[in-house]
């Protein structure tokens, strides 16, 4: 016998439209494999009269009332793809409190209030899934929680923002920053306000979510202290590319001894390294773990269809669990909180872009005991710099430093390897 489950959705923008486009196929798959018929009965939007890109299924009612969706007793599953912090949190809390399972793509919310919402979901015996919140179309969260369950993750390095990677790739190919950002917005990659995309905050939120699942470790925005791409220029991208580096906005979290090191910043990645080849809206997540060693996951990090696919896969899992009566995944609390240090505090080499006259720079370098290898006019590779030298250089307006990947000098590790329980996706 086919059971019917009613679904409600909040938001019908880039991701919501993708969900609608892919809906018939997902419904057929779920019906065929699970004997469950999904009915999308209500979708809430902010502007009821706005023209929509996709026609809604005939049974779907469009509303501008979030409450009409999250408090509807017939709806068992709510998809939140509207974004925002306060409104979305209120809506998800209401949905969970009304006993509905929730699927969200909202990384800002999961990064900042995820643990609270997950605890609520557990108390209410509901599921809360958020695969689309990190790296758009790449199924990285479930891979981490399921496929690394018996492994120990040592390092996660990622290109996690499609917009920023699109801009850096386009600038390397000759476009201006503004042209590239406009194109990313038109393609639906950027947030409605793209500030977080380019400031590194969106990447930071995604690293916070990955950190929780990979290391069982809460990371804060302050610990990650993001540096964005707003001051990276097309000229810098192009000169770096001509001399063997791609500039990438990298998210890094790495365990060394009993410390966790993290950073979000533009990094010069040598062209031989695989993440340098991740271009445009593609994202890439490189994981190093005890058992598997190095592995890399790439795919579209933003965009309507790819992100909607992650949402719909969560719908499939949540539906199956509704049918089986298993909801409210138990989350294992972090077994241990490692001290967190920003990677920028470790000695490493940098690309130095200088607007100073060469003679002034030479004098400056001699005074501060810096070894600079010229790459081309106004561009140098530094020796490994200590944090004090970096601070001095960063205080000079005419100089820009971009760390070079894989040059970090790690502190000597004397502690025993640490095994940290990881949180399940729930
Ligand atoms: N775009 C992408 O590639 C990705 C986005 N995400 C995340 O998915 C979420 C949605 O993103 P995206 O689709 O791009 O956003 P859009 O800005 O394209 O769409 C937002 C939708 O939410 C609706 N909405 C906004 N406020 C309200 C409200 N108060 N009540 C009811 N509806 C509301 C809007 O209604 P209306 O249309 O009437 O204005 C709109 O349909 C965000 O959390 C984003 O960070 C995650 C991964 C990838
Ligand atoms: N704006 C985000 C969308 C996906 O999370 C991005 O560009 O990556």
Automatic annotation (TrEMBL):
Residues 11-131 form the Aspartate/homoserine dehydrogenase NAD-binding domain. NADP(+) binds at residues 10-17. Its EC number is 1.1.1.3. It comes from the Bacteria. GO terms for molecular function: homoserine dehydrogenase activity; NADP binding. It catalyses: L-homoserine + NADP(+) = L-aspartate 4-semialdehyde + NADPH + H(+). GO terms for biological process: methionine biosynthetic process; threonine biosynthetic process. The active site is at 206 (proton donor). L-homoserine binds at residue 191. Gene3D superfamilies: Dihydrodipicolinate Reductase, domain 2, NAD(P)-binding Rossmann-like Domain. Keywords: Amino-acid biosynthesis, Methionine biosynthesis, NADP, Oxidoreductase, Sodium, Threonine biosynthesis. Residues 139-316 form the Homoserine dehydrogenase catalytic domain. It is an enzyme of class 1 (oxidoreductase). Pathway: Amino-acid biosynthesis; L-methionine biosynthesis via de novo pathway; L-homoserine from L-aspartate: step 3/3; Amino-acid biosynthesis; L-threonine biosynthesis; L-threonine from L-aspartate: step 3/5. PANTHER family: HOMOSERINE DEHYDROGENASE. This is Homoserine dehydrogenase.
């Amino acid at each position: 016998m086919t059971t019917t489950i009613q679904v409600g959705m909040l938001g019908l923008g880039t991701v919501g439209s993708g969900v609608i486009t892919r809906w018939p196929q997902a419904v057929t798959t779920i019906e065929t494999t699970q004997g469950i018929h999904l009915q999308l009965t209500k979708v809430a939007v902010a502007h009821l009269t706005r023209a929509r890109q996709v026609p809604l299924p005939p049974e779907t009612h469009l509303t501008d009332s979030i409450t009409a969706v999250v408090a509807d007793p017939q709806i068992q599953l709510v998809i939140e793809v509207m974004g925002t912090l306060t409104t979305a949190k209120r809506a998800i809390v209401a949905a969970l409190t009304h006993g509905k399972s929730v699927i969200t793509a909202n990384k800002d919310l999961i990064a900042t209030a995820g643990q609270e919402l997950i605890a609520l979901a557990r108390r209410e015996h509901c599921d809360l899934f958020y695969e689309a919140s990190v790296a758009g179309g790449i199924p990285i969260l479930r891979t981490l929680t399921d496929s690394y369950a018996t492994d120990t993750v040592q390092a996660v390095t990622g290109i996690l923002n499609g917009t920023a990677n699109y801009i850096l790739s386009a600038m390397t190919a000759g476009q201006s920053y503004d042209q590239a950002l406009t194109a990313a917005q038109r393609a639906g990659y950027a947030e409605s306000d793209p500030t977080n995309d380019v400031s590194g905050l969106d990447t930071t939120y995604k690293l916070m979510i990955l950190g929780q699942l990979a290391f069982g470790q809460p990371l804060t925005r302050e610990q990650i202290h993001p540096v964005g791409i707003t001051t990276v220029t097309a000229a810098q991208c192009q000169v770096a590319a001509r001399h063997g580096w791609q500039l990438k906005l990298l998210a890094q979290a790495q365990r060394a001894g009993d410390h966790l090191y993290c950073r979000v910043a533009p990094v010069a990645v040598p062209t031989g390294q695989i993440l340098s080849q991740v271009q445009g809206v593609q994202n890439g997540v490189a994981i190093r773990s005890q058992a598997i060693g190095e592995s890399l996951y790439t795919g579209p990090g933003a965009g309507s269809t790819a992100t909607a696919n992650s949402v719909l896969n969560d719908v499939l899992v949540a539906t199956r669990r509704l049918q089986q009566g298993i909801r409210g995944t138990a989350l294992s609390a972090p077994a241990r909180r490692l001290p967190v240090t920003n990677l920028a505090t470790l000695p490493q080499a940098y690309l130095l872009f200088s607007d100073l006259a060469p003679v002034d720079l030479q004098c400056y370098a001699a005074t501060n005991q810096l070894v600079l290898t010229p790459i081309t006019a106004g561009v140098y590779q530094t020796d490994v710099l200590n944090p004090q030298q970096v601070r001095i250089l960063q205080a000079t307006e005419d100089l820009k430093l971009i760390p070079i990947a894989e040059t970090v000098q790690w502190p000597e590790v004397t502690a025993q390897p640490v095994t940290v329980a990881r949180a399940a996706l729930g």
